[in-house]
Amino acid sequence: MTSPAYVPAHPVFCTIVPPHLLEHLASSADPAVAAAARRTLVADAMNRTSRVLSQPAVTRSAGPTAPAEPARPRRTVYDAENGTDLPGTVAREEGREATGDATVNRAYAGLGATFDLFLKGFGRDSIDGAGLPLLATVHYDRNYGNAFWNGEQMVFGDGDDEIFLDFTLPVDVIGHELAHGFTQYTANLEYFSQSGALNESVSDVFGSLVKQYTLGQSAQDADWLIGEGLFHPNVEGTALRSMKAPGTAYDDDVLGKDPQPGHMDDYVRTSRDNGGVHINSGIPNHAFYLAATELGGNAWERAGQIWYDVMTGGALTPETRFSEFAAATVAAARERYGDGEEIQAVLKAWGAVGVPTD
């Protein structure tokens, strides 16, 4: 196999909760909600700036390597103890027994679930294809309402217990953030405009696949929600995003309404959130959902394999747009499966969301 090549790193700081949602909460009439959202926005801004100033080289790997020993996860979960110094104090290491902290144990299990999907589903040894240790920090800051990948590790807040609960509760949130690392080590999609929306979508796709793989759900059985169980029971919403029906995940007096489109006719042009990366990701998200449910069975086996092949095949550039990504999925489907139902499902899916494939 060709050795991985070094490529320039783009600033990577990716959160599960989009800035537009936190900005809406920051203007809430409820002082507790507003204060927590403002605190989270400030923390995210500081981390984003820090990431730009101290980004390491990124290794781009075309696929899994042949390990010298059997692939196994190498997990470490740290506890920030409600501070902001990373990574924090070691709370649980690989192979150690569960602790008395449920948050630590959920993070550990979620790292393992993501590792298992990539290894058993796609033959990939960790997110970089070369056994990268998986690191996570829990109990970050106070009332921190987000989770993020900073280019090196995952970080989880405990939520504010007003809008958000513990960010380790949904396993797809853990899968989503680690999938940003997968993108970083493969296509390295620039976090802006359509390539940024694809970056977010790929994380939703693989986050959802982690959840489905863990629960043993078929494409038809899955709820296709991202972050289900993250909201406080008082919130009028089921999740952060819906791949099945973008724009329907929440509609709440405090949160506002889910702004995601599911078709190019409703594509949102904005300068906020790096060109709407969390909003417009609804379009490729819906395309994957349509392809996966059209094919049926386990979504990671055919639809997921096609998306994985695209990410690792070397055809994408950091500035890839929706139509280029769509064309790449068609090519990947043909290369792996020939001119059968797989390529037809992919063509039908992109057509249904208004993205051309040629």
Please give the order of strands in the largest beta sheet: 2-7-8-6-4-5
Low-confidence stretches: 1-9
Number of strands: 12
Count of individual helical segments? 10
Q: What form results from the Cα inertia axes?
A: globular
The Cα radius of gyration reads 19 Å
Indicate the proportion of strand residues: 5-15%
Biggest β-sheet: count, sense, barrel?
6 strands, mixed
Structural class: alpha+beta
SSE order, one letter for each helix or strand: EEHHEEEHEEEHHEEEEHHHHH
Compute the average pLDDT: 92
Helical content (DSSP H or I, runs of 4+): 40-55%
Could you describe the 3D structure shown?
The chain is an alpha+beta fold and 358 residues long. The chain is 42% helix and 10% strand. It is built from 10 helices and 12 strands. The strands form 4 sheets. Strands 2-7-8-6-4-5 form a 6-stranded mixed β-sheet, with helices on one face. A two-stranded antiparallel ribbon has the order 1-3. Strand 11 (251-252) and strand 12 form a beta hairpin. Helix 9 (322-337) packs antiparallel against helix 10 (341-352). The chain starts with a strand and ends in a 6-residue tail after the last helix. The model is unreliable at 1-9 (pLDDT under 50).
